[in-house]
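Box S1 | Example of a co-folding query
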Amino acid sequence: MDFVEWDESMSVGSDVFDGHHKIIIECLNALIPLMGKSECSAEIIEVMSRLEEFVLLHFSEEERALRLCGYPDWRAHKELHDQMNDLVFKLKSDVEHGRALEAAYLHEILYSWLMKHILGDDKKYEPYLPK
Ligand SMILES: [Fe+2]
Ligand SMILES: [Fe+2]
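Box S1 (continued) | Returned holo structure for fe (ii) ion
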């Protein structure tokens, strides 16, 4: 599994949200060195807590901006955020409560949701954001 590096092709046209997405990508990357190691549950919990706290903040700021700029699909976008918040919260709670989830499993599921969202759904709001 390779580290992902943010690049301009991932930009959503907002320095603030690009910065947020970089932090989310850093959290995903932080799971990679923990893959295949048995004694790293504390580190996995730390990464998942950081990710959970941050996606909550990021999603709410993004939703606020989308409403303010009149993005027509903001409700559907918020629903996707809610699903991802639930997923991240559930995975974080599972590892916190001792469920031995492999870093590779967490990475695979979170990567497919979050990167697909950033590169697909988030990019759609770019033309609506104020310049
Ligand atoms: Fe986003
Ligand atoms: Fe989003």
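Residues 41-68 form the longest helix (28 residues). The two ends are 36 Å apart (CA to CA).
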